[in-house]
Design a protein that fits this description.
The protein has 195 residues and is an alpha+beta fold. It is 28% helix and 33% strand.
Length: 195
Amino acid sequence: MTAAMSRMSDMNGLPPAGGWTTDDLDALPEDGVRRELLDGVLLVSPSPSNIHQKIAMRLAVALEASCPAQFDVTPGVEVRIDARRSFIPDVLVTTVEAARRGPRLFAPHEVILAVEIVSPTSQAMDRITKPALYAAAGIPYYWRIEIDDGISVDTFKIDPEAEMYRPFGLFEVEIDAPEPWPIKIAIEKLTPRFR
């Protein structure tokens, strides 16, 4: 039994009095369960749908195809904001220096773009909470992909003085984003064949 699980069973299944920390996350088993932290609250998400995963995979491949040498694209790696906040974007772009370390997590200053695909169980997190916290952490770009009625991509750029994102494009046919590098991706390329 891991230290975190032992600690939880010692508390009759209750969370730690001061809330969960990233040290507690590190002590949990590598079991494929998606765990995130929001102000010390442990969030456990259900497995994403196959449509969600296909869109994430196709986006990562499409971004990788045009990604400049100073950046790296990866799906689903932890971004550790601080000891009580840790999230796993569906796709992210980091600096190549950070990627060369081969990390299992990134610091916010290493992340260029965080992408979240909205699921029925993540609507408030992906539309409100995560963008606010990613912006406060200084991540320059945020994309939100909506998949309810077709696929649309909302793109945002940080306003560093306000520590919040400002929209710079809504794309329903083709992503045509000038930043963080010139990106053109037909939405059709992200769409699963059977959707």
